[in-house]
Amino acid sequence: MKKAPTIKNDILVMLIFSAVILSMPIWLEPLGASYPDLLQKFAIFGIFAVGYNILFGLTGYLSFGHAAFLGVGSYTAVWSFKLLTMNILPAIMFSVLLSGLFALLIGFITLRRSGIYFSILTLAFAQMFYNLAYSVLTPITNGETGLQLARSDPRVIDRLFSEAGEGLPSTDFFGFAMSGYSGFYVCAGLLIIAFFISQRIFHSPFGIKLRAIKSNQTRMKYTGYNTRPYLLTAFVISGMYAGLAGGLMASTDPLAGAERMQWTASGEVVLMTILGGVGTLIGPMLGVGIIKYFENIFSALNEQALHQAYSFMPDWLANIMVTITQPFVGEGWHLTLGALFVLIVVFLPGGIMEGIEKIKNLFAKKTPEPIMLEKPLKKSPETEK
Amino acid sequence: MDAIFLQILNGLDKGGAYALIALGLTLVFGTLGVVNFAHGALFMLGAFCSVSFYKLITISKQIKDESITFFDAFKEQPYLEIWFGDFGTTIIDYAVPLSILFAIPVMLLIGLIMERGLIRHFYKRTHAEQILVTFGLAIVLQELIKSFFGANPIPMPPPDIVSGSAPIGVLLGLGESVVYPWWRLIYLAFSGLIIGGVFAFLNMTTYGMVVRAGMMDRETVGLLGINIERRFTVVFGLAAVVTGLAGVMYAPILPPDYHMGMDFLVLSFVVVVVGGMGSLGGAVAAGFLLGILQSFASMNEIKSILPGIDQIIIYLVAVVILLVRPRGLLGREGVMED
Q: What is the ipTM, given to two decimal places?
């Protein structure tokens, strides 16, 4: 049994988290992952996964449609860049609001069902959005080309202050450019805020109610709670997180395409969350870091690089190793991802956090466990953390 | 009138594919209680069975091209043609139908390996975990195919004799303008045949009866001393074969590529849910129904009133059905009600 989380404890976790995130450019340097593009991805997908975890981790509702909110956020942000200003503040505000609105609508319908039906309903909605983005909504989404900035865009607010310059303007946050390290720090700041909110939700009565829904919805209903409003709130919050992530994606690279809404993209965020540890605070962030880091490394590898990596072996062995590993790297990175997915679900359904917990228990356990006739019930979520 | 007739035919045709895939999916769900997201991958593997069979029989030898005399030119000639002459050419022409014979054992094997190796460990886990693990499996299968066959669609020609269009208008007295590709008609007949076969197997054989009993109440069947697990493994293999055959025969209609499984997976899930989870008849009915609805929605007259409806009609129907009739069209009481 762990102690109940205290405010002091929370603040400590928060401070450590902030320090770790903000110092990422330094401690990732030796790993070769400290360049801004990747760091921005860490932060943005971190927001996405932390938000997704609020729904999936706390309530156990497996949504396969969150990529739709990501897409909505991206399109909204690019439109804001086109029509209003290159400052990202209004862009991400609109992204969050609009995706929240969409989440409210979709959640209102899909949350009438649970279990696999909920998964399929969200999937159906995401596919609907995806198909529409390619067909009827092309005036808004620009179809397969994707929505891009143009020199002739009105940008009303920017025009109040300055004339249109030469070339395409770039996005900024009150003067901080959204590219490079300053862009990372803006994203990281938002990630820390997002993490803080999620931490507060986890430890609030609201979060506990969500967990109660996960462990036994019927019991919750008999206790006199109408669970739907709680679920809907969680769904909307995680939809807004996804929208924020989408908006930031568009801010760092002002281009929005429909492929961001494909349901495999929803699958990716599910994977990140379960890899790190569903329902834990830090887990999703860990999952994001690992997946994005290895995606970056693996997809850059090619045959030559492999030969180099195996150069310490005798030639024949190196050749065999290259043949074995080659399908898994470069273009085949998704194969690795899929295999990882299967392995994690089979062997470590609780993700890395469960693994850490197990190792910890291994060392902590000095006295042999008392023999029990029945296996103890799964640790109820309320006692975690 | 002609247009409507053609659209119905179109819809039945599309519906045939949906129904076959959904049938396999329902078989697996109804018997094993597993939500199999890798089912679309089985369809794709089926289609690639025909591709690999075609590649296998057209393994060629380089021979000198006699028709070009002024320099040494080489052309490839399949061994089959060298060995058997015209008969070999005929075999190659009939590659797609013949690959059914190749696909049945291959798909059965794949199905059995999948069930024994992975799925069986997930009977007791939650549906969410089943979805996740089969989703990962689907990605793996898809990427493996991609690394072997490349990312581009591979066109598979139907046999020459049925590559044209059938003058069904003349046959049915609707005028000469009504024509329809032969192969699609064959596909429709084929799907009807397979569906009939599966139902006959389940309803008319003792083996099928036990399987149905197991779907109703596996515990009691187990208590009667029947090894229901083994039968279910066979059912999984059967489902893989049915879905694989749907893919084999679909190859001439849609050139197989590595992600066709994912595209069909979402659709077939929607079909299953609309039909009613665990109801075989419902899956077939919903497959044909949604196929017809979709092809009507893609008519220009309808598209001009409701733009984009053809893209979303199926999902829209699914959403409405799930909200109005949560159990699906023919769903049984007590099956997967949350």
A: 0.79
